[in-house]
Amino acid sequence: MSGSKIKAPRGTFDVLGEQASARAMLEARARSILEGAGYERIETPVFEATELFARGVGESTDIVRKEMFTFQDAGGRSLTLRPEGTAPVCRAYVEHGMHKLRRPVKLWYLSSFFRHERAQAGRYRQFWQVGAEALGSEDPAVDAESIVLLSRLLAEMRVSDVRLRLSSLGSPESRSEYRERLQTYLRAHEDSLAEEVRARIDLNPLRAFDSEHPGTQRVMQGAPRLLEHLNSEDAEHFAQVRSLLDVVNIPYEVDSTLVRGLDYYTRTVFEFTSDALGAQSGVGGGGRYDRLVEQMGGPPTPGMGWAAGIERIMLAGDAPPAAPAPVELFVALEDPHADVRAVAFALLNEARSAGISARMDLGGRSLKGQLGHAAALGVRFVAIVGRNQTTLKDTQGGRQEPMASDAVVHAVLRAHRAV
Ligand code: AMP
């Protein structure tokens, strides 16, 4: 039965061809950078209990309020497709008693995430992030190392026009005093604020810094800044993070208006943007979340991490795509008889077992068509399998030699060794 075409849902996309190999290259770079720094791979489930994000990411955030794909399973439990990676990693840390491991516990992931956002270039409903989390240490060197690793990944992927913005949100204690100060200021200017900002004065006044509403932006220019109200320990922690970034010559701008869209951050927060991206300029960001593990029911455990968008890195980067591995041997069929195909198929598999990258025609082409295909692939060796014998052609130098089909692999390996 034929039917109408079914399309991928809005805000999702297929990864094809060159895009797929470019992503594989990014993953290989990320693995090498992060595993080289002691991070181990972690995979968490695609869906989690909704409670995890409500508690972890925060009820007042856009993500939890309006962007989650939430559903009920047959048993009536509320589940959510993961919108971010830090809360699941912290859940896994607690669930597996990772606090008993040597600290910091360093974990990295590359996975897809789901947010019900307005789809546009660079903003999707299913997207991929590479992320890194270090749990169990307050040391400012953890913050600096983590930021440097993301900076290195962006540089290796040749992401252009990168800028790093950096700030500190302080500890919840120093923040609560500041929050009251900011709330008083916002209430005094309530008439000029966006409706949405006004509605969140009690719940999350800091998000006012993130607003794109012109009236709100004007008000925020004169607002008290959290960075100027840090307690001495938080200020010292921030100074140390900065000086370590200076040591390794990572440029950054201190931006006291930087607030991130997740509630769990404490102390260091940062964001890399690329001017090459236009409106959706965020490439990756993160920060400290020193209370999150405890909120997940674990022991007090400081944490620091980031996530960067794979699609944004691809859009803003111009790392040359890795050249596909060359095909070394093409097995052609002189005629389509089943016996010939059986010999050719055995040869194909023998070659692959020996580590030679080999292809064979699977499209029923004529011998001429097959040789054309081999030439298009740029294959050096072509074995033409006939009913009575096999001929091995070396296209470099044009030599052509009849031989038993089971001698071909040896001949190709010998020629390689001679190079
Ligand atoms: P966040 O988890 O919101 O801090 O986002 C971290 C990074 O993930 C951002 O800087 C983007 O590169 C990427 N990102 C977040 N949301 C989306 C989305 N809806 N589509 C594509 N990339 C996204």
Write the layout of secondary structure elements.
Elements: H1 17-36, E1 40-41, E2 47-49, H2 50-56, H3 62-67, E3 70-72, E4 78-81, H4 86-95, E5 105-114, E6 126-135, H5 140-156, E7 162-168, H6 172-188, H7 195-199, H8 214-221, H9 232-247, E8 253-254, E9 266-274, E10 282-288, H10 292-295, E11 303-309, H11 310-316, E12 329-333, H12 338-353, E13 358-360, H13 367-377, E14 381-385, E15 390-394, E16 399-403, H14 408-418
Parallel strand pairs: 1-5, 7-8, 12-13, 12-14
Antiparallel strand pairs: 2-4, 3-4, 5-6, 6-11, 7-9, 9-10, 10-11, 14-15, 15-16
Helix pairs in contact: 1-5, 5-9
Adenosine monophosphate binds at residues 84, 115, 117, 123-124, 127, 129, 260-261, 282-285, 307-309, 311-312.
Q: Could you give the distance between the termini?
A: 56 Å
Task: Give the count of helical stretches.
Answer: 14
| Estimated radius of gyration | 28 Å
Structural class: alpha+beta
- State which percent range the strand residues make up: 15-25%
Question: pLDDT average, as an integer?
Answer: 93
Task: Write down the secondary-structure element order.
Answer: HEEHHEEHEEHEHHHHEEEHEHEHEHEEEH
Spatially, the strands of the biggest sheet line up as 1-5-6-11-10-9-7-8
Counted beta strands? 16
The ligands bound in this entry are: adenosine monophosphate
Low-confidence residue ranges: none
Oligomer: single chain
Overall, the morphology is: elongated
